[in-house]
Structures are given as C-alpha cells and as structure tokens.
Design brief:
By secondary structure, chain A is α/β, with parallel strands linked by helices. Chain A is 48% helix and 19% strand. Chain A has one domain: Transcription Regulator spoIIAA, CATH 3.30.750.24. Chain A is built from four helices and five strands. Chain A has a five-stranded mixed beta sheet with strand order 1-2-3-4-5, sandwiched between helices. The termini of chain A are far apart. Chain B has two domains: 145 residues, Globin-like (Orthogonal Bundle); 111 residues, 2-Layer Sandwich (Transcription Regulator spoIIAA), CATH 3.30.750.24. Chain B is built from eleven helices and five strands; from the N terminus they run H-H-H-H-H-H-H-E-E-H-E-H-E-H-E-H. A five-stranded mixed beta sheet of chain B has the order 1-2-3-4-5, with helices on both faces. In chain C, strand 4 and strand 5 form a beta hairpin. In chain C, 39% of the residues lie in helices and 33% in strands. Chain C is an alpha+beta fold. Chain C starts with a strand and ends with a strand. The chains are: A alpha/beta, B alpha/beta, C alpha+beta. Chains A and C meet through helix 2 and helix 3 of A and helix 1, helix 2 and helix 4 of C. Chain A: InterPro entries: Bact_StressResp_Reg, STAS_dom, STAS_dom_sf. Chain A: It comes from Mesobacillus subterraneus.
C-alpha cells in the first residue's frame, strides 16, 4: 500500500496512518522525492500522529528523506510525534538532531511558513 | 497442643513471664530498650506472653484459626521482627528448661516434646514473618504510590506554556516517569514551551543531568521547546565541573525569567494596564 | 512460569509479525503505551538484526511471572555468523550495516535486562526483559 501525498499550494502534506513496514517506508521515500520534483514544492509536512512506534530503520529512512528533500530545495517539518515514540527514539540514541518538529499539522504548517518566509 | 506442656505453662505463668522479661531485656537490642520505658516494656511483655499463652489453649483447629489473629496483634505492637522471633524462641527455651528441671521432660519423652514444640512454634513463626512482610509490602507500595503522585505535575500557565516543577531526589525510575508525564502533558496541553523548574532538586549529578537532557531532546521531537529554570549557583558549578553540556537548551536562573523568555518565544507579552492610581 | 510464542524470521514481513506479536503480549500484560513502544521497538531492532546478518532465526516472546512481578522477555536466536567483538557492538555508534548504529546498545537502554551470548560461526542468542512496574 502506498502512502498518499497531498499538495497544498506550494507544500506537500503527508499523513502516515498505519504502521510502516520496510517496503512501504522505502516506497514512500521514492514517491515523496518524485512528488517534490514534479510539483517543485518548497515545503513538506509529514504527520506521524497515528504512528505509535519508530525503530532505527524507519528513523533512518525518515532522516534520509529529510536530507534528500533538503537537497532538492524542500524543507521538511515532522509533526505529531507521540510521547512514546519520542521516548523510544531518544533511548535508542536517535536524536534526529536537525529535524524541524511541531506539535500538530496546524503548527507544522505555521512553522513551515515561518521557515520559508525567512 | 500437648496437655502436659499446656498444663505446665498454665501453672507457671507468672514465673515464665518474669523469666522471659529478664532474659529478653538482657538480650534485647539496645535500640529497643532505649526506645521503650521500663513500665511500657513490662506491660507489653505481659501482653505478648498473655497472647502466647492464650494461644496454647484450645484444639489444633482453633489454634490455626487464631494464628493470623495472634500474628496481627503482635505486629500491631510494633516491635522489630527479630525481637519478636527471638522472644518466641526464648519463651520456648524457658518452658522447655523449666519442664526439664521439674522432671516433666524425661529422656524417654524428650524427642516427642521437642517435636510438639516445633509443631507449635514453626507455624507461629511463619505466620508472624508473613504478616510482618505483608505489612511492609503494603507500606512500601503505598509509599510508592504516594511518591508517584507527587512525582511531577505539569501545570499550564499560559496558552502554549507549561511548567513542570521538580521536587526531591531523582532516580532512574522517577526520571522515566517524569519524562512520560512531561511529554504526555505537553501534547495534551499543546505546549510550545515547557519549563522544567529544578529549584527543588537537591543534587544534579551526571545521571540527573543526562535524564534532563534526554527529556529536553524528546520534547524537541514532539515539536515543543524545553527550558531549564531554577539553576542555583551550586548546581551551575557541579554542571560545569562535571563537564555536562547543557548548551543545546535555554537555561534561566529562576522561573520568572523563564516565563518571560517563554512568553517572548510564543510572541506574547505581559503589559501593565496602567490603573487609575 | 513461562508462556512462549515465537515468530520465525526469514523475510522483512516477519519483522512486522514479530513486533505485532510483541505488542499484543505487552498490551495483554498491561504495559503502558510508552513501554509498549519500547518493547515493540526493541523487537524490531532484534528481528532486523537477524534478517540482515543471520538471514534466518527466531524471535520468541515469553511472559514472565516472578513472585508478584509480571514481565516480558524477548528471546532472539539465530545460527548466523555470530558476533566476534561483543564489546564493540555494544558501543554506541558502531554499525556494520551503515544504519544509524543504534542497534544493540539502544535495545539495552529500552529494556530492563539485557543479555547476549554469541560465538563466531555458531550464532547469537539475545535475551532482553522488561518488568511491569
């Protein structure tokens, strides 16, 4: 199953609704990069509200896709990381150091506008 | 209970009691002796012996039923466990020796009587220990709950700004609890800035600092910002001396300054309304 | 008393199956959401290690009962190449797969108890437990 990527003005919206397996995650990476290329979007919001666990593989795929998007000129904001997910990531030793985050989709879009405005 | 033993105890009650009090006092932990006055000691001792003796009457079935009752009464006296078990042992010794002196215990029936004593004392010992330990377990779990309750409240002070005051020593277990509360609360209140106030934390060592840094990192992941306030001079000293790097997040020396900074971050400002005076 | 259920790890889908099993058992035992995430993540890491390095192995989930405590144990067994330098893989940042290197030390931090046995050419066994508080 593929993860739908929506376009909103010059931004892309992605809401991941179910547990990611490796294939889906890699497919998503590819799809998102193509979509950025296609739409020349400036920003991406990836909402993880429904995700209740992230392991190091998925974290790596996410981190990679953020860096790749950046290379293509699109800023990525991750939103809705659940407390349990944040705690496990930190305990695993994955800080996702340079990643922009926001509490929810709304705040994520705000943050994106701020970043793009500057 | 064996009739001979029971009879002996009934008829020598006073003698046994005096002897018990004497011996126990000699052997007793200084702690206990210091703790209780002479009068209290004698009267509670009497109580204890009475209890023990009352336990001798009746049939075996009654005995089993009464055991828990007895143990609970002993526990309620609030004596140290070692004192009670030793007291029990002393009691047996006195009775046995007394019976030996009077010739009730002979070479022939010696083993029978020893077994009889054992049959009587072992369940009582077990019951006392088990009641004691369950009392302790209950206390410990109650205290644990009490500790959790005061663990770490998260207080929303303005829209988007919450404060978590930390009080007391932080161990690993508590640190995890605090992190959970912090993150869940931050999401629930939709906080943009979370202030952790460590004014009430007596010691910040590497472990505590590590947990605070982890918490701050996790807060960043959920999309909020973490600020550490209430840093006293001695804590600033230990943090630097231990080489702990807190440069990644904002620190302020008190909650007031922290809240001012938080307001600024969320584009808010407190203005005076300039009253009539 | 142990009650065990297992998942054989051969392909990537088995990783998903293993962590779903773990999550269900954790939920059943009454672990909170954060501990559920810790356990699921630890299983995912261990299962992926098996898939990547050993090719084939097994993840078993035990329910533990010890006195008044209940807990969950992950048992990851493979007969792959084994680990030559256990101390090295337990260091943060060490990785042979080009991943994030969170692997085993991360799993250790997520769980309460962690125990690894490995000999080159024989395979690896990792046990990690978490107790209900």
């Amino acid at each position: 199953m593929r993860i739908p990527i929506l376009k909103l003005n010059d931004c892309l919206l992605v809401s991941i609704q179910w547990e990611l397996d490796d294939q889906t995650a890699l497919q998503f990476q590819e799809d998102l990069l193509h979509k950025i290329h296609e739409t020349s979007a400036n920003g991406v919001v990836i909402d993880l509200t429904s995700i209740d666990f992230i392991d190091s593989f998925i974290a790596k795929v996410l981190g990679d896709v953020i860096n790749m998007s950046k290379l293509m000129g699109a800023i990525v904001v991750i939103t809705g990381i659940q407390p349990a997910v944040a705690i496990t990531l930190i305990e695993l030793g994955i800080g996702l150091d340079d990643v922009l985050t926001a509490l929810d989709l709304e705040k994520g879009l705000e943050k994106l506008q701020q970043e793009l405005g500057e | 209970m064996n009739q001979t033993i029971s009879n002996y105890i009934q008829s020598h009650k006073q003698q046994i009691q005096d002897e018990w009090i004497n011996r126990t006092k000699e052997e007793a932990d200084e702690r206990v002796v210091r703790l209780v006055s002479d009068r209290v000691f004698v009267s509670t001792s009497k109580e204890f012996i009475d209890l023990l003796i009352s336990n001798f009457k009746g049939t075996n079935e009654e005995y089993t039923n009464r055991l828990t009752d007895f143990a609970e009464k002993v526990v309620r006296l609030g004596w140290p466990l070692t004192f009670v078990t030793k007291g029990l042992h002393t009691f047996n010794l006195i009775v046995f020796e007394g019976m030996q002196e009077e010739g009730i215990v002979t070479k022939e029936n010696q083993m029978d009587i020893v077994y009889e004593f054992d049959r009587w004392a072992t369940p009582m010992n077990n019951e006392i220990v088990s009641v004691y330990s369950s009392t302790w377990e209950r206390t410990v779990s109650l205290q644990k709950i009490a500790l959790q309750e005061l663990s770490a409240p998260l207080i929303p002070v303005f829209e988007g700004i919450t404060v978590m005051p930390l009080v007391g020593t932080i161990d690993t277990e508590r640190a995890k609890q605090i992190m959970e509360n912090l993150l869940k609360g931050a999401v629930k209140h939709r906080s943009e800035v979370v202030l952790i106030d460590i004014t009430g934390v007596p010691v910040v060592d590497t472990m505590v600092a590590h947990h605070i840094i982890q918490a701050a990192d996790a807060v960043r992941l959920i999309g909020a910002k973490c600020m550490l306030v209430g840093i006293r001079p001695e804590i600033a000293q230990t943090i630097v001396n231990l080489g702990i790097d807190l440069n990644q997040f904002t620190t302020k020396n008190n909650l007031k300054k922290g809240i001012e900074a938080a307001l600024e971050l969320t584009n808010k400002k407190i203005v005076s309304t300039g009253g009539a005076k | 008393m142990d009650i065990q259920s297992c998942v054989t790890i051969i392909n990537e889908w088995d990783i998903v199956a293993a962590r779903q099993l773990g999550r269900n058992v954790a939920k059943e035992l009454g672990f909170g959401t954060v501990d559920q995430a810790r356990i699921t993540t630890a299983i995912s890491e261990l299962a992926r290690n098996i898939y990547l390095y050993a090719g084939k192995g097994q993840i078993c989930i035990d329910k533990l009962y010890d006195g008044g405590k209940a807990g969950l144990r992950i048992n990851a067994v493979d007969s792959g190449p084994g680990i030559r330098e256990i101390r090295q893989v337990m260091e943060d940042g060490f990785s042979t797969s080009g991943g994030l290197g969170a692997g085993l030390p991360g799993v250790k931090r997520l769980m309460d108890e962690f125990d690894i046995e490995s000999s080159p050419g024989q395979g690896t066994q990792i046990r990690a437990s978490k107790w209900l508080r």
